[in-house]
Amino acid sequence: MTDEEVLARIYTGLDREGPGDPADVAWAIKRLGLNGARAVCDAGCGSGADSETLANALPKAQITAIEQLPHLVKEAQARCERIPNVTVRQGDMARLDGPFDLIWCAGAIYFLGVTAGLRGWRSGLAAGGTVAFSEPVLLGSADETVSAFWQEYPAITNLDGIAARIEAADFEVLDHRQIIGAAWQRYYTPLAAHLVALRATDDPGLREPVAATEREIALWRTAQDRIAYALMLARPR
Ligand SMILES: C[S@@+](CC[C@H](N)C(=O)[O-])C[C@H]1O[C@@H](n2cnc3c(N)ncnc32)[C@H](O)[C@@H]1O
């Protein structure tokens, strides 16, 4: 089984593929005073959880959801097929045509790097447009559990570090909030149930990836108050 096939088996049929909550979307929209016929991009939309939330919160807006993985594109298209103001496309979020009033990116900018991602999105923003993205954040000095949890993301930093990466792209931070607790529960609870089902298939190619994902969830369970994303609102200077 290729890595891509393994990913497709594990991250399939989930409500979402990373931590997040409709309340995060609502907070960003309210904080930015967004309404009316806006153009919004959900970059790295996964199976489209936030595309749906954005579309419902902004019924006059046009939401363009971009995802690179074909099986998630299909899931997002199925989820959004009855929502008239969402278009889901397979594509590379590093290159966004725009112009967008809001580029929303939940748990995906780390694939590009915060500074490189923002630099690349500048030309895809409308005048006065904003990027809202969530990014792993260290809340204090990382203990053993937190370090083990973020082992595969050595670039993780604290809030000041994220702000510095935003500044390096010549953007300014408008506001931020923590994504912690319930938003992670919303991600991990369906994933944990899916892993139980995968384990029952006894597919040898899935044994280790399933076990690794179970370890990730177990680490999170013991450090729920210290494992977080920061949701950042940033605008070009
Ligand atoms: C952690 S998941 C989050 C998905 C979704 N935003 C959510 O919160 O449920 C990150 C997503 O970004 C997608 N992604 C990563 N790099 C991408 C790229 N260059 N273009 C489009 N999608 C990308 C991945 O395929 C994955 O679906």
UniProtKB/TrEMBL annotation:
GO terms for biological process: methylation. The keyword Transferase applies. Signal peptide: none annotated. Its EC number is 2.1.1.-. CDD domains: AdoMet_MTases (cd02440). Keywords: Methyltransferase, Transferase. Pfam families: Methyltransf_25. GO terms for molecular function: methyltransferase activity. Residues 40-129 form the Methyltransferase domain. It is an enzyme of class 2 (transferase). SUPFAM superfamilies: S-adenosyl-L-methionine-dependent methyltransferases. This is Class I SAM-dependent methyltransferase.
